[in-house]
Amino acid sequence: VENAPAPLFDVDEYRPAAPRAGEGALSTHDSGLVQVERWFHRHSSSLEEKFGAALRQSIDEVLDGQRTGRFDVEELEKTEKTYLGTKVEIVVRSAFDLDRGASMDYSIADCEVDAKWTSGKNWTIPTEAVGHICLLMSADDHESSFRVGLLKITDDIMNRGANKDGKRTLSAEGRTAIRWLIPDGRLPENLLLTLSEGDRSAIFNAGGPYRATPGGGQKRINELLRRVQGRVVDRTTAITVATQLDGPKRVRDARKYLQPEGILVLGHQGNDPKVARALGLPVPTKGSWLSVRVSRVSPGSGRPAATINGELYAVALPGEPVEPAPS
Amino acid sequence: VENAPAPLFDVDEYRPAAPRAGEGALSTHDSGLVQVERWFHRHSSSLEEKFGAALRQSIDEVLDGQRTGRFDVEELEKTEKTYLGTKVEIVVRSAFDLDRGASMDYSIADCEVDAKWTSGKNWTIPTEAVGHICLLMSADDHESSFRVGLLKITDDIMNRGANKDGKRTLSAEGRTAIRWLIPDGRLPENLLLTLSEGDRSAIFNAGGPYRATPGGGQKRINELLRRVQGRVVDRTTAITVATQLDGPKRVRDARKYLQPEGILVLGHQGNDPKVARALGLPVPTKGSWLSVRVSRVSPGSGRPAATINGELYAVALPGEPVEPAPS
């Protein structure tokens, strides 16, 4: 592919918006910017997945749920919110094997490119970035969404008022000029954010008032798996709820606590994926799990069912009596 | 132990310095401070090891050597240096299972305690901490040293000039009043910092000019193991030099590259610890390795030697001809 004579992407494919009156030297026509955009598209056919994973990873590392039990960026301290931008810069550099620029964060397709993250709706641009391209990134973890775009920074696309560090925000016109690499990306879900406040507080208080209460991590994990059924529970969620390194072990140990309540905890090994599929549920991959309450059913029930230890089980319906799960 | 009728430590054991003229209400006599000090000593008999590991972990996480190749805190950006204080606060809270305070970072022995980190020689104290106890921590990674102490914050132990955030530094008198939990701790060594600039640049440039050059990680690891022999190479060093997640695999793969040069790479499994011991070398634990060039010797050599594949090997002396290592 690298030696192919014809370019993989034709510049015309990017259809830059026609210049509108008053926009002057339209930044979206910048040839460097087109090169950078082309580089990203050539680099990966799954840009959305790759950026989504990098932003998810960055947010999760700064939340540090394993030590802090936090799952919401709103809980971050100011220094951590600032640092999140640096972490995103580092994780994206590593994910795309980007070189350092001479004056900006990255060198991409021989262009100086600065990484700019925001947790809000606008980006703050330092004076040094004027004349260079910015890789603009933002995410809304509550909406499981993110955006990534490119913009050549010129004075005329920034608001006039600078903050005390001489940084300026993008003007409305500037934001319109952004060429989106990923205009509406799907951020890998933060499971704990999707739960009701009632479920969350029941889970986090299941082990007693203090996170470090002995046995508390196991009780919190048990409660998580009682309340979140039929959905894949990822490793970050497990270590955040356990608030300890061996969250995965707590999930495996939950099997014996939840078995009397009829709840199966399925992983990625042995027959578990087959059982999940037969029950009509998502299949956990390595480092993720799924819990589900089951009931014995007869062969003609018409419900998706899995044979376990010679008996047929289906996902228990609400109201069906609790019987022990197979082991 | 919790129910023992007599306290494990007697307050008198702590021998607070006799008040000197001019010190006023000496902060070191604060009863809360004595309680906090006592709590730490009761909590762990290996305080130095525990704090040392927590500070090492904090520094290594912010360096993020696996992604960045960095090993020196001097290379951190300003936002990262600020964040390091937050990371230390989080890692120490987790290491000692500390509760959050109502107004300060921690609640220890019913006292509000604020975590304060400095990379320098003095600490910057916010106004809110006045009247409370600070857990003062600092480390010098180049000297493999760290200090941890306690101080009750009062107005009279701080310098007068406040910075723009209203924070003040400790006065010389204030620093003298610190009650050291660990006055001169040994920080787990940062191996890369101990190498000469020549060795470091040979290692980091072995793979070509770009960190992400294919095969570069393997070449850097090979060069590390050529130049650092007879010393334990820890996992952080391996992933920083490889600048990739599978640094440990690169170390294992180095065996076949270095075998023709007479270099053994020993790990913690199989016969490796036995061989290391017989050669008179440190024994690698899980997640660490040790490389050494060996030569065949005769039984009467008097040199510490290990029998491998029926032949006797000792650590090669400088100048001894290179012969392939046993596999």
SSE blueprint:
The structure is a homodimer of 327-residue chains.
Chain A: H1 31-43, H2 47-63, H3 65-68, H4 78-95, E1 106-108, E2 111-118, E3 124-125, E4 133-140, E5 145-152, E6 168-169, H5 172-176, E7 179-186, H6 191-194, H7 197-205, H8 216-227, E8 233-234, H9 235-242, H10 247-258, E9 263-266, H11 272-278, E10 288-296, E11 305-308, E12 311-315
Parallel strand pairs in A: 2-4
Antiparallel strand pairs in A: 1-2, 3-6, 4-5, 5-7, 8-10, 9-10, 10-12, 11-12
Helix pairs in contact in A: 2-4, 7-8, 8-10, 9-10
Count of DSSP-assigned helices of chain A: 11
Shape descriptor of chain A reads: elongated
Mean pLDDT of chain A: 90
Strand content of chain A: 15-25%
Q: What would you call the structural class of chain A?
A: alpha+beta
Q: Main sheet of chain A, how many strands, which sense, barrel?
A: 5 strands, mixed
User: Span between N and C termini of chain A?
Assistant: 51 Å
Please give the share of residues in helix of chain A: 25-40%
- Low confidence ranges of chain A: 1-28
Spatial strand sequence of the major β-sheet of chain A: 1-2-4-5-7
Please count the beta strands of chain A (DSSP E, at least 2 residues each).
12
Counting copies of identical and different chains, the oligomeric state is: homodimer
> Of all protein chain pairs, which has the greatest interface, and how many residues does each chain bring to it?
A-B, 19 and 19 residues
* Order of H and E elements of chain A: HHHHEEEEEEHEHHHEHHEHEEE
Short description:
The structure is a homodimer of 327-residue chains. The first copy, chain A, has 327 residues and is α+β, with helices and mostly antiparallel strands. Chain A is built from eleven helices and twelve strands.
